[in-house]
Design brief:
The protein is mainly beta. It has helices spanning about 5-25, 150-155, and strands spanning about 30, 35-45, 50-55, 65, 70-75, 80-85, 95-110, 115-125, 130-140, 150, 160-165.
Length: about 180
């Protein structure tokens, strides 16, 4: 026999349905000042190449990353720099960039072991109409659908991620 809900339990169930319905609405609503609801996949624009890319928003990653190949370090004005290629996909041309190395990191694997060494550079990306200068690790993302991954450092004051939606924002920047 099913026991009827108390009035307090019924109110909690109703509130849960209303909350779920509101969360399911695919709108680029402002969550808090400066933060917007964004899908788990959004488009970003890379002004250095005037190209739009799909990016995965990953709240489990601290630092953002970009698909980079042919990575070569060199010195410029007594600073350490890196040259790398963002491979073209679906017939697009490769993009060669040079950036000063901001830092380097050792990636820790899921089993706790030290993994690969990666360089970190600053890239400018447009997300939801705003230009962001953020740190990106240079990583081989060939096995992934998205060439860019946006981590918590970039998203913390910008996005609340809706895990059931994609493409809730625009990739452009003001003036780009």
């Amino acid at each position: 026999m099913v026991k009827p809900l108390s009035p307090a339990q019924a109110l909690c169930v109703a509130a849960g349905f209303l909350t779920a319905a509101a969360a399911a609405a695919p709108t680029p609503a402002q969550a808090t000042p400066g933060q917007y609801v964004m899908g788990w996949i959004e488009q970003i624009r890379l002004p250095a190449a005037q190209r739009v890319f799909n990016a995965k928003l990953d709240t489990g990653a601290t630092t953002s990353s970009v698909d980079a190949r042919d990575i070569e370090t060199f010195s410029r004005d007594e600073e350490e720099w890196v040259s790398f290629v963002i491979p073209g996909r679906d017939g697009a041309d490769d993009i060669r960039l040079e950036r000063e190395i901001a830092r380097d990191v050792e990636i820790i694997q899921q089993d706790g072991e030290m993994g690969e060494h990666r360089y970190v550079v600053i890239l400018s990306v447009c997300l939801n109409g705003t230009l962001h200068n953020a740190q990106f690790t240079l990583a081989d993302r060939e096995a992934f659908d998205e060439q860019f991954l946006l981590g918590r450092r970039l998203m913390e004051d910008v996005a609340v991620v809706h895990s059931g939606e994609k493409f809730l924002t625009e990739p452009g920047c003001s003036g780009s």
